[in-house]
Amino acid sequence: MTEDFRIRFLIVDDQQSIRKLCMTIGASLGFVCAEAESAEDALVYLEASAADIVLVDLKMANMGGLEVLGTLKKMLPRTEVAIMTGYGSVETAVQAMRLGAYDYITKPFRVEEMKLVLQRMAEKVRLVAENQFLLEQVRTQMELNGIVGSSARIQDVLRMVARLKDTRTPVLITGESGTGKELVARAIHFGGVYAKRPFVAVDCGSLVPTLIESELFGYEKGAFTGAVRTKAGLFQHADGGTIFLDEIGELPMEMQAKLLRVLQEKEVRPVGSNQKVRVDVRVLAATNRDLEAAYKAGTFRKDLYFRLNVVTLHLAALRERKSDIPTLVRWFLGRIAPNRGLQVSNAAMNCLLNYEWPGNVRELENCIERAVALGGDAMVIDVDDLPPSIQGAATIGPGARVPAISAGVSNAAEGEPSMDLVAMERATIQRVFDQVGGDKTLARQILGISRATLYRKIKLYNIRIGQQAAAVSSTS
Ligand SMILES: Nc1ncnc2c1ncn2[C@@H]1O[C@H](COP(=O)(O)OP(=O)(O)OP(=O)(O)O)[C@@H](O)[C@H]1O
Ligand SMILES: [Mg+2]
C-alpha cells in the first residue's frame, strides 16, 4: 500500500519564495503539493481537501501559526504539522510541540534540513496509515474465520490461511490437542473460493479399523454382509471440495498405503467394485503427533507424510503464546455472554496468564464458560470462579517467583503483576518502539498510555530507543 499512498503536503507561508522552495522540496519527495499564503486560506483549503502534512509559518499577518495549529489539530487530528519560525524562540517551539506539532524548523533553513523533517513526517504518516490498515485487515480476518489472537504466531497463521485459502495445496496442520487445528482447517476451506463446495471432516482416530476403507471410499451393494446397497464414501462426498483428515497419525499402515494411492491417482475404488471413481479433493490433514518422528520410527509412511505435508501449518501451544489469553478471554466472553459487559478481575487474569493450559484454547474456552455459569449475575469474574487447578497457578506457577523488577510497576491494590505480564509488557513496548523507529509520541499513541507512564516504563524496562528519535524527542 505504501507505493500508491502519496503524501498530500500543504505549505502555509506569506512569503512566496519560501512557498516555492518548499513546494519544490515536497515535489522532489514525491508529495502532492499545495500552497496557501495565509492561515485563513489554509483553513479554507483544508475544509475542502485534506492534507497529510502541513508546514506553517509561525509569524503571519492576522492569524499566526500557533492558532492554525490548534484549529488544524482539532479539524484533522491525523494531519502532522510542523512549524517554521524565523525567530528561533525555543519557548514558542515548545509551545507548538505541546499543541501537537510534530517538529519545528528555524529560518533560514538548509534544503537538506527541510527534506529530513518532511521525510520523517511522511514516514510517520505512512506508518500510522499502514498500522491502521494492518489492524483492520487482521480484525476483518479474525471476524471472518473466528481465529483470534494478537501474538506474532497467530498473525503468522492468519497470513498462511489467507495465502492458502484459494489453492488446492495439501496442508498438514500440527499442534497439541485444543490448539485450533480444526478451526484453521475450516478457515482455509470456508474463507476461500471453494467455500461453497463440500467440507467433509473425518476423524481417523475414531473410525473402526475394519470399516475405514468402506467409509472413506464407499462400497458396492453386496461387497460384504450388510452392504444392501451401493454407498458413496467420504471422498466422493467431498468431491470438488475439501476432505479434512483429522488425527491422521492414527490411520493404520495398510490404510495409509491406500490413501496414498488415492492422492496420487485422484481416484477411489469402492470396496467390492472393479470400477474406479475420479475424485477431485483437496486434502487437509491434522495431527497432534510428531509425524516426522513417526515416519522415522517406521509407524507412518514416509511417502504419505511428504504427500500430505506440502505445507505445514503449526499451531503453537497456548502456553507459548500467552499474550493471546486476554484477547481470547474477551472473545469467549462476548460469545458466551453477549451484551453483558462481563469483566475479569486482575487477580483472575493473573491466574489465567500463569496457568500452563495443557488443554490449550479448548480448556480456556471451557474455563470461561464455567466461570460465566458459576458467576451468576456478578459483573466481574474473579479467582473463585476459576477451577482450583487454575486458581493455584497464581501462587505455584512461574509467576510466584516475581523478581524485584516488578516491584516498580506493582499496584498494591491489585497485587503484584506476574513475571509473564512484566515480560510481556516490556516486549510489547520494545516492539512498538522498534516499529516506530523510536518516535515516543507515536509509541505512546499506539500503546494508549500517558506520557508520564511511557517515560516511567522506558526507564523501568530500559527500553532501547533509536538514536535519531532520541534527539528529536528531547525537544518534545
Ligand atoms: N485462535 C482461536 N481463536 C478462537 N477460538 C479458538 C482458537 N483456537 C481454538 N479455538 C477454539 O478452541 C476449541 C478447540 O479448537 P479445535 O477443535 O480446532 O482444536 P484441535 O486442535 O482440533 O483440537 P484436537 O486436537 O483436540 O482435535 C474450539 O472451540 C475452537 O473454536
Ligand atoms: Mg480437532
Please describe what this structure looks like.
Helix content is 47%, strand content 13%. It is α/β, with parallel strands linked by helices. The strands form five sheets. A five-stranded parallel sheet has the order 2-1-3-4-5, sandwiched between helices. The C terminus is likely disordered. It folds into four domains: 125 residues, Response regulator (Rossmann fold, 3-Layer(aba) Sandwich), CATH 3.40.50.2300; 169 residues, P-loop containing nucleotide triphosphate hydrolases (Rossmann fold, 3-Layer(aba) Sandwich), CATH 3.40.50.300; 81 residues, Helicase, Ruva Protein, domain 3, CATH 1.10.8.60; 55 residues, Arc Repressor Mutant, subunit A (Orthogonal Bundle), CATH 1.10.10. The chain is elongated and about 100 Å long. It binds adenosine-5'-triphosphate (ATP) and magnesium ion (MG).
In brief, what are we looking at here?
With 476 residues, the chain is an alpha/beta fold.
CATH class of the largest domain: Alpha Beta
Tally of helical runs: 21
Task: Look at the structure and give the mean pLDDT.
Answer: 83
Kindly identify the CATH topology of the largest domain. Rossmann fold
How many beta-strand segments? 16
Q: Strand content of the residues, in percent?
A: 5-15%
Largest sheet: 5 strands, parallel
In whole angstroms, how far apart are the ends?
Answer: 30 Å
What small molecules accompany the polymer chains? adenosine-5'-triphosphate, magnesium ion
Major sheet: arrangement of strands: 2-1-3-4-5
Which bin fits the share of residues in helices? Answer: 40-55%
Q: What count of structural domains?
A: 4
The shape is elongated
Protein name: Sigma-54-dependent Fis family transcriptional regulator
Modified residues (4-aspartylphosphate): 57
InterPro entries: AAA+_ATPase, AAA_lid_NorR, CheY-like_superfamily, Homeodomain-like_sf, HTH_Fis, P-loop_NTPase, Sig_transdc_resp-reg_receiver, Sigma_54_int
Domain Sigma-54 factor interaction: 147-373
